[in-house]
Amino acid sequence: MSITSAIVLFGVIWFLTYLVVIPIRLKTQGDLGQVVEGTQAGAPEIHNLGKKAWITTLITAVLWAIMYVIIATDIVTMDDIDLFKRFGPDSTYGTNG
After folding, report:
1. Residue 87 domain-assigned (yes or no)
2. Does the pLDDT at position 66 exceed 80?
C-alpha cells in the first residue's frame, strides 16, 4: 500500500467513524428545555466535538492498523472477494464463441 493510499484510507475511516460518534451523548436545546427563540429544539447545546474528534482518531487508528495489516499481508486478496470472476480479464475475451 502506498503512502497516499494509506492516508486516504485513514481519512475515509476517520470521517465515517466521526459521523457515527457525533450523535452519541448529544444534548439538544429541547432536551435541556432551553430553546432559544428562532432556533429548532433539535439544535445542539452540548456537543463536545473536540473530545469526540480525539475519540474518533483513536478508534480510527485501531481500525486503520487492522485494515493495513490485512491489505499489506494479503490475508484477503481481490481473488477472495471476486466470487463471480468479474474483476480479472475474461478467459473467453477475444474468442468467437
Report:
1. no
2. yes
Mapping DSSP onto H, E and C, the string for 34-86 reads CCCCCCCCCCEEECCHHHHHHHHHHHHHHHHHHHHHHHHCCCCCHHHHCCCCC
How many domains in the chain? 1
Residue at 96 is within a domain: no
How is residue 53 written as a grid cell? 474528534
Q: Would residue 7 count as lying in a domain? A: yes
Within a domain: residue 92? no
Q: Which domain holds residue 59?
A: 3-81
Residue 96's contacts (CB-CB under 8 Å, 6 or more residues apart) are none
Instruction: Please name which of 20, 21, 38 lies closest in space to residue 29, comparing C-alpha atoms.
Output: 38
**Residue 87 near residue 78, CB atoms below 8 Å:** yes
Per residue in 34-57, pLDDT tens? 888 888 888 888 888 999 999 999
